[in-house]
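Much of our argument rests on the idea that a fold can be written as discrete symbols. This step matters because it turns folding into a mapping between discrete strings. The record that follows shows the chain in one-letter code together with its fold in token form.
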Amino acid sequence: MFIYVVLLHRYCLFVNIIGFVYSGFQAFDLAYHLVTGMHVVSDYLRYHFNFSMDQILAYLLMSASSSAATRVDDWILNWGQDQFTLLASASVGMSFLAFLAFAISSLISGYNICNRDST
């Protein structure tokens, strides 16, 4: 049982790391654009890349958060609350917040992909 809980939390952690790296890439792309006036990824691909990555990460974050949340709740019901469950609950909460950020970002990138200049 403990191994299963640890694997779920590793999944949650790795999905959050992937989201962090992608967000860092987006910040780098914005900084690069502000300095040079160009983007790292071409215009046509950038809209599709942003939309698809936002969608993928939002779904992965929701999957990781919900699976980890059920295991933490089960752990608390069976063995009580301790330091591990407090940290795991905080991790799940931060993962849900990251999901909300990617969901909003997905809406914005969906708007951008539909309203971009076709020239």
Notes: The mean pLDDT is 86. Residues 3 and 9 are 10 Å apart (CA to CA). The radius of gyration is 18 Å.
